[in-house]
Specification:
heterodimer; A: alpha+beta; D-Maltodextrin-Binding Protein, domain 2; Dipeptide-binding Protein, domain 3; 3 domains; seven-stranded mixed beta sheet; five-stranded mixed beta sheet; 17 helices; 22 strands; 27% helix; globular; B: mainly alpha; MetI-like fold; 2 domains; 14 helices; 0% strand
Chain lengths: 569, 316
């Protein structure tokens, strides 16, 4: 039964979640995350459950507090791939977004504690049915042009994402998908053209934006920190690198693809006035990204060329431990998804897919590659680290069962399949696939591991019949399932289409009761697991290393760089 | 001689024309255009674009015109020093290429400056007395360094001198400005690989000369051994190594890819690999022209040098 909660926790979902918290069915951290999503202040939520809140900057800004010892100045040097900056709405690499993140900001920001707080919005609220979301835009946020950010700017960006001509993956996010309806028209590929519903985006006044969705959406603020949702100025024209106007404290200085991307502090607006950054003090003079391929980033750190790096792989962990620096490891939902296209022979036969899945021992593969670190995947893409994860019985390898299924499917003499691997997150992809290959052999499956350059893999990731794709961390299980497995969504690389799954996912997303939502999501997980669409053996931790003279660094599970309060000694 | 140089240059222009035409034709396919689109816009964006929007993108990039027209435009541009604009890096290819060639040129300069005297010295000393301890030692070192792939040499040197002893930087990206120390490991990797090959060729040539009649006669005549080697043997023994050394310029241009990528050195090889992976046609074209130029130029130098070293050789 809901009890009286302090102001800010009025939303019925929050009250319901609090009941579950008291009954021990919900963890404190999950409650804080949920309360913050639904408009409560994160600090109050921490206080309510009796956990120490991470300190925030003065004025409840969504950044760590200012360190009294902090010294201004210096250049933070980072090893990362320096990539093209075209259109933020079509960014397909986190690295691209990191290059732009301190210039283009987001409506919300998810911190290293997995709690989402207001950023360009100063607060938000959701209707009891989670279909209407009201965002109060922060006052006094200045564009580099000197203009003030308004609700119209945010509305313009959301409309742009929804426009099919933009070709943004943001249409797969619940917050955008909930605003769309079928226009009744079809494109030249026969796909239905989706358009914004009438009145879906309402600009209430200069600082208030309301989104009217056609289904309940719990993840709206979290979606608005997904990396391609950076807010651009209304004068934006690709490529971004030609004219980077944002609201952040840095702008593009030097930029050469494959070489370096130097961000410099903004002190004056384009029309020569003083630029006042809304987010308080920023200490660094410059952030300089230097291009290093993933294999070479640690050597750049070892040589003292850079202060930190994007990430390093598990194979480099021992070397990293020998270096003078602080290693940050974050538990994440990043994974490899060895998915089969269900409309491509021999994977059209569910028994073949099930045989492949059954022949692999996910735990052994995970332990071989990551040892004690990371989580074992359960072949449905929702990770234990997701707050809406519904536990299922542990998977068991069944070689005899796999053999029988293959025989029934007409492959009694064995099955030959090839998996394409791009090692896009490092050579551990190949290691995992080779371990799978060795296990599959026992079941009569001859798996060929076709290794190709990462850039080549990204050309075919959604086309290859059997491919090993790296998926980055996303804060919710429903979010990743909506992006990757709902019928007809753009990132549905397995071409999976199951109305029963879609229905289960809809029901999970529409369930406001947190504990019931986990149960509902477990139904969707089970359907996906039984349909054997993928082998997902590993949820990997991400590792990075930071020099000891860098203060205020916090590792982020999605590898999003948040350097506003970093300072150097 | 002038006729020879003229015919070689004509040959070079012909090869450049044919190769660039073939490359243009290959890169004109829908597959390659889509590859550029995927690399620029992301896989999802391309699959989500309508045909009309995709055509608009092709037009914006100038990829919608027939390839022969693009080719002619490109040839006209090249004649004026304009090699087009890189799709990946969004800057003029000529600027990009010039910077990278200077970097690779510096690398090559150091490689040749060390490799030539070392390999000639070891090769000549080994060839002077076949089967002697110095001959066996040189052969062993040569075979060892040549049989190790560049990548393995690069890893071994990095582990020992950069990560172990910490004497040298493990990469040559030089993010803090030009640093000669950063060149040591890439240069050493290339020198070690190339040294063995040239030393063995020099040794073989020297050994052959030392077994020839006129050298035996000179020795039997009682000429001082030093004089026999310096005045009579060396000049003839160096003809074959000279050709090989000049042709190493050509090898170096492709050989640097592995070394430059491993050490993150911003040179011609790394540029070529990046362009190939991206499908950056104008960079690939320009790099190909450079490669053809170097190949033909090294051949001309080799031919001309031959005539000076061996007056019996004359080209019709």
């Amino acid at each position: 039964m809901a009890r009286k909660l302090p102001p800010g926790f009025e939303h019925p979902v929050v009250a319901n979640a609090f009941d579950h918290l008291e009954a021990g069915r919900l963890s404190k951290r999950e409650f804080i995350r949920l309360a913050a999503l639904l408009g409560a202040s994160a600090a109050s939520a921490y206080a309510l459950v009796g956990l120490p809140a991470p300190a925030l900057a003065e004025g409840a800004l969504p950044f760590p507090p200012d360190d009294p010892k902090a010294k201004a100045g210096g250049v933070l040097k980072v090893a990362m791939q320096v990539q093209k900056l075209e259109d933020p709405a079509t960014f397909s690499w986190v690295q691209m977004s990191n290059q732009a993140r301190h210039t283009l900001e987001y409506v919300a920001i998810t911190g290293p504690d997995n709690v989402t707080r207001p950023m360009l919005a100063e607060s938000w609220s959701a209707s009891p049915d989670l279909k209407t979301w009201t965002f109060n835009i922060r006052k006094g946020v200045m564009w580099h042009t000197g203009e003030e950010l308004t609700a119209d700017d945010i509305a313009w960006n959301i409309k742009r994402w929804a426009d099919p001509a933009t070709a943004s993956s943001n249409v797969g996010l619940s917050v955008v998908a909930g605003l769309l309806e079928d226009t009744g028209k079809k494109d030249d590929k026969g796909k239905p053209i989706m358009g914004l519903s009438n009145g879906a985006i309402e600009v209430v006044d200069k600082y208030t934006l309301r989104l009217h969705m056609n289904r309940p959406v719990l993840s709206a603020p979290e979606d608005l920190y997904n990396y391609p949702t950076a807010i651009v100025h209304r004068s934006f024209k690709a490529p971004l690198s030609d004219n980077m106007i944002g609201t952040g404290p840095f702008t593009l200085g030097e930029f050469r693809v494959g070489d370096k991307c130097v961000l410099k502090r903004v002190t004056k607006t384009r029309d020569g006035k003083d630029f006042n950054y809304w987010g308080g003090k920023v200490y660094l003079d410059e952030i300089a990204y230097y291009n290093f391929d993933s294999d070479n980033q640690l050597s750049a750190f070892a040589s003292g060329d850079v202060h930190t790096l994007y990430d390093f792989t598990v194979e480099q962990l021992d070397l990293a431990k020998s270096l003078p620096g602080i290693i940050h490891a974050a538990r994440t939902a990043q994974n490899i998804c060895c998915r089969m296209q269900v409309d491509h022979a021999p994977f059209t036969d569910k028994r073949v897919r099930q045989a492949i899945v059954m022949s692999v021992d996910n735990e052994k593969v995970k332990n071989l590659v990551y040892g004690e670190d990371g989580d074992v995947g359960e072949n449905h893409h929702v990770a234990p680290v997701h707050p809406d994860y519904g536990p299922l019985p542990p998977l068991k390898r069944d070689v005899e069962g796999a053999k029988k299924l293959l025989k029934d499917a007409g492959f009694e003499k064995g099955l030959e399949v090839t998996i394409d691997v791009g090692n896009t997150d490092g050579p551990w992809h190949q290691t995992a696939c080779e371990a799978m290959r060795d296990q599959m052999k026992e079941a009569g499956i001859n798996l060929k591991v076709n290794v190709m350059p990462a850039a080549k893999y990204w050309e075919i990731w959604d086309k290859t019949p059997f491919g090993c794709t790296a998926w980055t961390h996303r804060p919710l299980g429903t979010m990743v399932m909506s992006l990757g497995y709902r019928t007809g969504v753009p990132w549905n690389e397995s071409h999976y289409a199951n109305p029963a799954f879609d229905k289960a996912l809809d029901e999970a997303e529409a369930t406001l009761d947190v504990a019931a939502r986990k149960v509902k999501l477990a139904v969707a997980e089970k359907i996906l697991q039984d349909d054997a669409v993928m082998v997902m053996p590993i949820f990997r931790p991400v590792y990075t290393i930071v020099a000891k003279n860098v203060n205020g660094y916090q590792g982020h599970p999605t590898e999003y760089h948040q350097f506003n309060k970093i300072w150097l000694t | 001689m002038l006729k020879l140089i003229g015919s070689r240059l004509l040959q070079m222009l012909l090869i450049m024309g044919v190769i660039s035409f073939i490359l243009f034709a290959i890169f004109d396919s829908d597959k390659f255009k889509k590859q550029i689109a995927v690399n620029e816009l992301g896989g999802f964006a391309v699959s989500a674009l309508s045909e009309q929007d995709y055509q608009a993108w092709l037009e914006k990039k100038g990829l919608n015109v027939p390839f022969y027209q693009r080719y002619l435009n490109w040839v006209a541009g090249v004649a004026q020093g304009d090699f087009g604009k890189s799709f990946e890096k969004n800057e003029p290819v000529a600027d990009l290429l010039a910077t990278r060639l200077v970097h690779t040129g510096l690398l090559a300069l150091w490689v040749f400056a060390l490799m030539i005297p070392l390999s000639l010295l070891f090769g000549v000393v080994a060839g002077m007395k076949e089967g002697s301890p110095q001959d066996r030692l040189t052969s062993f070192i040569s075979v060892l360094t040549t049989s190790l792939p560049e990548i393995a040499t690069a890893i071994i040197l990095t582990v020992i001198f950069a990560l172990g002893l910490r004497w040298l930087p493990p990469n040559a990206a030089m993010v803090n400005g030009w640093d000669w120390r950063a060149l040591v490991l890439p240069v050493l990797t290339l020198v070690l690989y190339d040294f063995g090959y040239v030393a063995r060729m020099t040794r073989a040539s020297m050994a052959e000369v030392m077994n020839s009649q006129y050298i035996r006669t000179a020795i039997l005549k009682g000429l001082p051994y030093r004089r026999v080697i310096l005045r009579h043997a060396l000049r003839n023994a160096l003809i074959a190594p000279f050709t090989i050394i000049v042709l190493q310029m050509n090898w170096l241009l492709s050989g640097v890819v592995v070394v430059e990528v491993f050490f993150q050195y911003a040179g011609f090889g790394k540029l070529l690999l990046d362009a190939a992976l991206f499908g950056d046609i104008y960079v690939i074209q320009a790099a190909t022209l450079v490669a053809v130029f170097v190949a033909v130029a090294s051949q001309i130098i080799s031919d001309v040098g031959y005539t000076f070293l061996n007056p019996r050789i004359r080209f019709a």
